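pinging the channel bc i need a second pair of eyes. not urgent but kinda urgent?? the chain im working w is below, pasted from the shared doc
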Amino acid sequence: MLGNRYTYRAARTAAGTAAELARQLVTGQASNGMALIRPAGHVAGVDSGEAGNYFNNAAVAVRAAQAAGARRVMVIDWDVHHCKGTSEIFAEDPNVVVLSLHRYGSAFSPNSGPAEQWPSIHLKLGFFPSSGPAEHVGVGRGRGRNINVAWCPPSVMDKRGRRIQVEAPPISDGDYLTAWHMLVLPIAAEFRPDLILVSAGFDAADKDPLGHYRVHPECFGHLTALLRPLAPLGLLLEGGYNLAATAASAEACVRALLGERPAPLRGTRCAGVTGWSSILRTLLVHQEHWQSLGMLNFLQLAGTPTSEEWEEVQDEVEEESEDEGYEVDAGDSEDGEEEEQELQEGEFAAVLATAVQGEAPGQASTSVDDFEPEEVVAAISEAPDLLQQHQLGLGAD
């Protein structure tokens, strides 16, 4: 554990500050605010601290809000590390939504610097804390209340049957903005929280030495502004290891809380390969838990089966990767013959364009139904230019 003789006092002060902010927001003494606190706390669990996280500031704030009269609380964690402790604490609570957007998978990436800089244990275990896959949705009555957008590049099978990860640009503004419009805002509107708390870590910021992502301060300002109309809003500082980037990002958030219009966004507003594949996985997992997600899943607009139907199809269909395309065993058909279907980039592009534009499924010559989930992800990785062509107006007005 990290710390010195002042750590306990600092940790108690941080948790107390978070609790007071939550209390004032629930009682109407403030409409929004930000707690500039350290040490971070979102990794700390029910009975243990970890990696310099001693008390879970967000969890303490939620309990303080509930004590002050809040019935439903939503916690959004945009720190680059998964909020392992917060998810654990509220895994069975149907009145608390914990939505985390975090880096997942290997600790090493092409943008992380030379591999020799990373201890071998990190390469084996993955990016700290190696938790929070999309499939973890909560327990018991809390099922569907744990939502993970686990940023991880898609993988494909090579000719030898080995799974390899697709090389992709780092997560940036467009990925977070797309997740906001396709997941965060619809879920928040459906859940109708009395309070929204953001575990606002800035280690996903551009130039942060740990996250290696490319999210700019202006983007954090837009994310904050988009949440303001939904409920009283409180931001709690978590990680962030480039002081200049953390300061600029925090300033952008505070300006948005004060009602200033966020600065114009830099670069593209569209998600990249990693963003789309990660968002799609979360959408497929949570369609059964959130009614609002079915309408916004653009694959659903093109006639994609539900997640349960995907499982049934996967049980019946065996897929083999070949040089000329994908050979699909369609199972027992009426004529008893084996059918083959070749996934062509042009065909999938037409389907994806139809889905993004919201046209009727019948207008496309081929439906997404004809492809396996792995094929869809692979095709997205092969056609990033198509996604760029359909940029959405994703910033705050």
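so The first strand starts at residue 32 and ends at 35. and The beta strands are 32-35, 73-77, 96-103, 146-151, 155-157, 163-165, 195-200, 233-237, 318-322, 325-329. — does that match what u expected or am i reading it wrong
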